[in-house]
Amino acid sequence: MNFNEEQIKSFNRLSGSFVSSNKYLSQAATDHERLITLNHDSQLIFNFNCLTEAYQRKFILNNFELYCTSLFIAIRPRILTFLKNEGLTGFTFDSIYILGQLRVERIEKVSIR
Question: pLDDT, tens digit, for every residue of 67-83?
């Protein structure tokens, strides 16, 4: 299933508000709207290039994969809200985490219990 344009915009608004409401991400984000996005292929893109270099060095580069996991766990409640709003009980996302030349792809399942 691919999400339509309205659903993508809805998710991206939720993710932008997540970034804005997080003290550390908000201060470090150079582009709140592009840090975490849903695209037309139903892929979640985590673009860590939208964070300051100081933040990247301090929190991401020392353990990239752990940071990816931690951020997904942190945004999961917003993803659940999105799924509920769309009348879905769950979804499997192809999640892509990017920082410079680093790239991790994971399948992330989210379901409402």
Answer: 999 999 999 999 999 99
**What residues contact residue 51 under an 8 Å CB cut-off, 6+ apart?**
25, 28, 29, 30, 35, 60
Distances (CA, A) of 50 to 12, 26, 82, 99: 15, 11, 23, 9
* Residue type at 27 in one-letter notation: Q
pLDDT confidence of residue 113: 77
**Burial (0-12, 13-18, 19+ Cβ within 10 Å), 63:** exposed
The residue whose two tokens read 């998710």 is: 11
pLDDT, block means (10 residues), the chain with 113 residues: 93 95 95 94 96 97 96 96 95 97 96 87
With b for 16 or more beta-carbon neighbours within 10 A and e for fewer, the 21-52 pattern comes to: ebeebeebbeebebbbbbeeebebbbebebbe
Prediction pTM value: 0.93
Confidence (pLDDT) at 1: 80
